[in-house]
Write a structure and sequence with these properties.
8-stranded mixed sheet; 43% helix
């Protein structure tokens, strides 16, 4: 019995949730996003296949260390993005710390060979970073413009509901877009899906 439980825990996919909302930016409901993801996975058919690891007030060193600590197959970032200027994390004082796109892509590139399969950037204007990361990671989601809090949360709910039901990353992306549209929020075309495997097939 113990061996079966142990092998089951070894097959769990870790979802590393990185949340960042600097005090000098608009406040986001990141705790609600995490709670909704957690609730969706807990009620899903395949809940035993996933393990959620949240990290809040993420600084650049926290990002790097969390990847080393958990070596996750799935990374979910919720917070602010600023397009060409980079992704917004926090500095030691809790203020904006921009992370350059190429530095982010280089970091994720090294984890591509360590089992990182999917990166979700649930942040405004993050398509720039998503495109760079998608040169190395098979499945990446970014946002092609600003996205409201409600739409971002609904996307996350739909995405992880689909994964929890056993569907693919592409299905999960479409489920996230559907979850936005079904609420009557006109932002279902804001998330974009990058698939490295299709690019080379």
């Amino acid at each position: 019995m113990f061996q079966a439980e142990n092998s089951q825990s070894l097959s769990r996919k870790t979802i590393l949730v990185l949340a960042s909302s600097p005090t000098n930016e608009a406040r986001l409901r990141l705790d609600k996003e995490l709670r909704e993801i957690d609730e969706g996975l807990r009620r899903s058919q395949h809940r035993e296949k996933f393990s959620l690891q949240p990290k809040f007030a993420v600084r650049p060193d926290d990002l790097r260390r969390a990847l080393l600590d958990f070596n996750p197959p799935i990374v979910h970032f919720c917070g602010h993005g600023s397009g060409e200027n980079g992704l917004i994390l926090e500095n030691d004082a809790g203020l904006v710390q921009l992370v350059p796109t190429q530095a982010l892509a280089n970091l994720f590139k090294r984890f591509a060979t360590r089992g990182l399969e999917c990166v979700v950037l649930n942040a405004c204007y993050s398509e720039v970073q998503a495109s760079a990361i998608a040169e190395h990671i098979d499945y990446v989601v970014g946002m092609n413009s600003a996205i409201g809090d409600d739409a971002a949360i609904k996307f996350a709910v739909g995405f992880y509901d689909e994964l929890g039901a056993g569907w693919s990353f592409e299905d999960a992306y479409n489920g996230g877009c559907d979850a936005i549209a079904l609420q009557g929020i006109p932002e279902e075309n804001t998330p974009v899906f990058k698939n490295l495997k299709k690019k080379f097939n």
